[in-house]
Design a protein that fits this description.
By secondary structure, the protein is of the alpha/beta class. The chain has a single domain, classed as Rossmann fold (3-Layer(aba) Sandwich). About 30% of the residues lie in helices and about 20% in strands. It is built from eight helices and eight strands; from the N terminus they run ββββαβαβαααβαβαα. It has an eight-stranded mixed β-sheet with strand order 1-2-4-3-5-6-7-8, sandwiched between helices. A hairpin with a 2-residue loop joins β1 and β2. The longest helix is centred in the N-terminal third of the chain and has 15 residues.
Length: about 260
């Protein structure tokens, strides 16, 4: 069921499916909630899925002003407050993972479990970034034009805002990450646009993190190995923490 809701002055489009505990899915950059079609949308069998589209993305119009992770995180928090009113399981993909992480940093009371798929916390970890140096790939432009209320001609504005935000945003610090104490799944492809070294740093700095590297996949891992990705995310979101037999990193007794 698709609907609109006013979020911090933005008429925000979202889809809602399934029933159960709420799970909010945050799409990637320059795309929309269709990122989860044929993969994580299968979790509607177990959860009440909420799929908002950020300002300037998908069905949600752009508004004056720059993009920033702080604004996206505050929009996400306001969306959760309006639709759920309490803490949720929060999963983000690519730029959506960065938004999810920022949301957990700025609004920790709203996130009970966190899934970060192919996202980073600092521009230094990104191999590829949004750029205005070349025309956007035709499939990306076509997908934007299909649903955007701003029309295809506005896409270069959105790309420019996304490119500027990478360098304009304040990077998260180790202290920021150390304050995210909810159970977190850090997940990436083995050939991602975020370096594996950066993914490992994210995993090691978050206090309650698990790590999953999906083999033989790229940044489009949700489409390349959907069944495995759904199983990993679903198991993490529904399973209680269990001790391992030979803990090293978790030897201090933390279940995660």
């Amino acid at each position: 069921m698709a609907d609109h809701i006013e979020v911090n002055g933005v008429r925000t489009w979202y889809d809602e499916r399934g029933a159960g505990d709420p799970l909010v899915l945050l799409h990637g950059g320059l795309t929309d909630s269709r990122d989860f079609t044929g993969n994580l949308d299968a979790l509607a069998e177990r959860f009440r899925l909420l799929l908002p589209e950020r300002r300037g993305h998908g069905h949600t119009p752009d508004v004056p002003g720059p993009f920033s992770m702080e604004a996206f995180a505050d929009d996400t928090a306001a969306f959760i407050g309006e639709t759920v009113g309490g803490p949720v399981r929060l999963a983000g993909y690519s730029a959506g993972a960065m938004v999810a992480l920022w949301t957990a940093v700025r609004h920790p009371h709203l996130v009970e479990r966190l899934v970060l798929i192919s996202g980073g916390f600092h521009p230094d970890g990104m191999i590829l970034r949004p750029s205005t140096d070349a025309p956007p790939p035709p499939p990306l432009l076509s997908a934007y034009a299909e649903v955007s209320p701003d029309g295809a001609g506005h896409f270069p504005v959105v790309i420019a805002k996304a490119a500027r935000s990478v360098t304009a945003d304040r990077p998260l610090t180790p202290d920021d990450l150390a304050a995210v104490t909810c159970p977190t799944l850090v997940m990436s492809a083995d050939d991602d646009i975020i370096t594996l070294e950066h993914t490992l740093e994210l995993y090691r700095t978050l206090p309650a993190a698990q790590l999953a590297v999906v083999p033989q996949t790229s940044h489009l891992l949700l489409r390349e190995r959907p069944e495995l990705c759904v199983r990993l995310v679903g198991d993490f979101l529904t399973s209680a923490p269990a001790p391992t037999w030979m803990p090293i990193r978790r030897a201090a007794g933390q279940p995660y």
